Amino acid sequence: MRDEVIKVLAKRHFGITIDETTDRDTQAQLGMISQYWDFFSGEMKTNLLGMILCKDATADGLSDAVFKLLQQHEIPFNRYTKYNRL
Predict the structure, then answer these.
(1) How far apart are CA 36 and CA 40, in angstroms?
(2) Residue 65 placed within a domain
(3) Cα(22)–Cα(26) distance, rounded to whole angstroms?
(4) What pLDDT score does 46 carry?
(5) Mean pLDDT, the chain cut into blocks of 10 residues (86 residues total)
(6) Cα–Cα distance between 72 and 56 in angstroms, integer?
(7) pLDDT at 1
(8) Per the domain annotation, does 84 fall within a domain?
(9) Does residue 85 fall inside a structural domain?
(10) How many domains, in total, are found in the chain?
(11) Contact predicate 52/68, CB 8 Å
(12) From CA 7, how far away is CA 3, in angstroms rounded?
């Protein structure tokens, strides 16, 4: 399923929602969710792209983690149109 979502995101525009949490050991973790409109089913699709460790919970640290995940899966940066942080 995740591979299918990554293929879709590489070809169409999508939104990203992130949520960061820091554990007791001060390790920042980031959950990244994608959302896009599926024209074939007529539904909004929401999928977890991944949970990743961040170097820190600053704006730079979170942005770096988002870009790294997109780059890792060869998803073009210019495909995302919306960015939310919970």
Answers:
(1) 12
(2) yes
(3) 5
(4) 94
(5) 85 89 81 91 92 84 86 86 71
(6) 19
(7) 59
(8) no
(9) no
(10) 1
(11) yes
(12) 6
Yes or no: say if 29 and 20 are a contact pair by the CB < 8 Å rule. Answer: yes
Give the residue ranges of DSSP H helices in 1-86. Answer: 2-9, 59-72
Strands 80-85 and 14-22: parallel
- 69: tokens are 């995940």
Nearest to 55 by CA among 28, 31, 85, 21: 28
Q: Are 18 and 84 in contact (CB under 8 A)?
A: yes
Would you say 79 and 67 are in contact if contact means Cβ atoms under 8 Å apart?
A: no
Question: Taking every pair of C-alpha atoms in the chain, what is the biggest distance, in angstroms?
Answer: 45
Signed CA dihedral, 54, 58, 62, 68: sign only: negative
